[in-house]
Amino acid sequence: MIKKDRLTAILMLMPSVILLAIFVYGFIGQTVYTSLTNWGMDPSQALAINPKIKFVGFAMYKELFTGFIDIRFRQDLVNTFFFTIFFIAGCLVLGLGLAFLLDQNLKAEGLYRTIFLLPMSLSFIVTGTIWRWLLQPKGGINMLPSLIGLEPMQSRWLTTREQIWQFNWQDIPQFTGWLIVLVLLWISFSAFRNKNKSRALVAFISLLAIAAWSAFIAPKILILPYPETHGFNIAFVGIIMAAIWQMSGYTMALYLAGLRGIPQALREAASVDGANEWQIYRHVVLPLLKPISLSAMIILGHISLKIFDLIFAMTGADNSTTDVPALLMYLTTFRANQFSKGAAIAVILLIMVAFVIIPYLWTSLRSEVER
After folding, report:
1. Angle, to 10 degrees, between the axis of helix 236-260 and the axis of helix 109-117?
2. pLDDT over threshold 80, residue 137
3. Residue 352 belongs to domain spanning
4. CA distance 324 to 312
5. 64, pLDDT greater than 70
6. Model confidence band, residue 140 (pLDDT cutoffs 50, 70, 90)
């Protein structure tokens, strides 16, 4: 009977497994292979019926990170980094604040909850169109001061080319090293706190090795033959505002569900022990919301890394100051017909998303097995 049930389960799952293998992993494999060729680099062969494709290994990846003409891709990575940081932070802070507000048993709570969740029901295309109208140089938000008799603002929300927090691309190896040091420091501290001395020792030794590499070896690595500055484009402020407006309702819903799931007895016990309202939130409520914060960060990080439609709707495809890798992949592949380079950008995006998703899935699955 058990074998029959197992065979039935296999037969039921087989069509889905086959389709998944072909249309997901098969196409991923094809994209990876294309990124290792020179398809499209010769315009006469790009759209030929039988193009002459040559295997070139990781040449496209090297060109993207060190080539003279691919400075736009490197700025796109910087744009994505800053967008991700501010987008996640804004959604978490605003969502948590709205959840705390709704948790105070307000009148018409259902109405407020609906209003806060409404932007989430819109597509990024609709959100981008709305905020593009709001951020017009001669209208929208810029005209608000005129309602009280003041001069209109002159902010070029989406078209300014001003940059702040500039750095040299040559410093990327050193920055990466110090970022790894911070991660290893957190792992070492967590392992030591959990009394896992062997893991803490390995993390600490690795930390010292990476720190030495970052301090003495990384500064001597020249990935470009010339200085190349990048920074945070101010034009992204309007896009970040629009993205936070749409997705903060999502984090609000997660946090509100978490707040409603905290037993009232815990708050009352903390109050009996002398904790005030702020201390209850800091030492009882917020620690219990950490799993929700992690889940929200993973989902929001996944969205931000492959953002495309919001930026396309707000600034179009040709505004390089608000470009991101997903948009550049579209332009490189379907406008320039440089299929191998577009595939390389797609693979880099896949790796970035995998770095966010896989550790979370691995931790979640391990915790479920341990239970």
Report:
1. 140
2. yes
3. 1-66+338-371
4. 10
5. yes
6. confident
